[in-house]
Amino acid sequence: MKRVALALFSLWFGLIAIGTANSQDKLDQPIRMAYLQNDIHHLPLWIAIDKGFFNEQGLKVNIAGIFRSGPEVMSAFSAGAIDMAYVGEAPTVTAAANGTVKVAILAQVNTEGSAIVVGKDSPIADISSLKGKQIAVPGYSTVQDFLLRKAFGDPGSDRNGTKVTVIKPPEMLGALRTNQIDGFIAWEPYPAQAVRMGIGKVLVSSSDIWKNHPCCVLVADKRFAETNGARIKKIVEAHQKSIDFIREKQDEAVGIAVKYTGLDEETIRNAMKNVTYVSSLNVEGLREYVKFLNGLGYIKLNNLESFIEKIVY
């Protein structure tokens, strides 16, 4: 009887040891992270890397991709190439609603942080003057597309006759400089860059169009999130620490942004004035944006609340 009890105890102890080891092995496995090129909204990620906040949590985070647009990030999720990303809420919602990816939103990264920019010497003086002008947006289902429509008073409008073209933000500056477009709406630092380069001026900041509007979010592959609860918690804690760092040590945060973007300090400081870094998810903003996408047919959902409940971690 004693031998049986001893054998059972040994088996139980062995299973506990194996489980602990497997858990530790999981924490040691690198998390494949992605973000958007030169997007100042993703400063919390750069700070977490630079200041070792992920390491403090016992996490290994590898940059698996630096992309030029949100849809490219979604394609990487779909291909199983990344586990997590700092990315726009717009491409996240669109891809998830259309079933091309299964992801979960873990936290907000920032609110606001975009602007409508026109040529430096442009006669355009207000929103109504954009009628008939060639304006670039990053994409038709982006937050910037929503903001441009909302600037005219109705997110469901036709943008008041504005001629809209899709251009990736890194290419907008050249298009504005060569007069291929009359203006653009993009996230920071591209508006600040246009001003710094002497080719553009800010017509209106996105905070004046939709105050506290959601923009970028921290996203994870849904299966990864469901099977890595401990690591998700640690990532979010590191993310929060970065947000606090930006508020408390702004000068150092600016230096880190300069390091990761290669832009000059003045441009970074001006860009950061237009961005609010927060971690608490703006669910009401998410709801309004989902309604906008659904109303215009970019996504097709029968139950918006159910979708929101499923996509928020």
TrEMBL record:
Keywords attached to this entry: Cell inner membrane, Cell membrane, Membrane, Signal, Transport
Q: Membrane-spanning regions, if any?
A: none
Q: List the subcellular locations.
A: Endomembrane system; Periplasm
Gene3D superfamilies in UniProt: Periplasmic binding protein-like II (3.40.190.10)
Recorded GO MF terms: ATPase-coupled transmembrane transporter activity
Q: Is Transport there in the keyword field? A: yes
Domain Solute-binding protein family 3/N-terminal stretches: 44-264
Signal sequence annotation: 1-23
Q: Does the keyword Cytoplasm apply?
A: no
> Gene Ontology terms, cellular component aspect?
endomembrane system; membrane; periplasmic space
Q: Which domain of life is it from?
A: Bacteria
Family indicated by similarity? Belongs to the bacterial solute-binding protein SsuA/TauA family.
Name by which UniProt lists this protein = ABC transporter, substrate-binding protein, aliphatic sulfonates family
Species whose genome carries this gene: Desulfomonile tiedjei (strain ATCC 49306 / DSM 6799 / DCB-1)
Recite the lineage of the species.
Bacteria, Pseudomonadati, Thermodesulfobacteriota, Desulfomonilia, Desulfomonilales
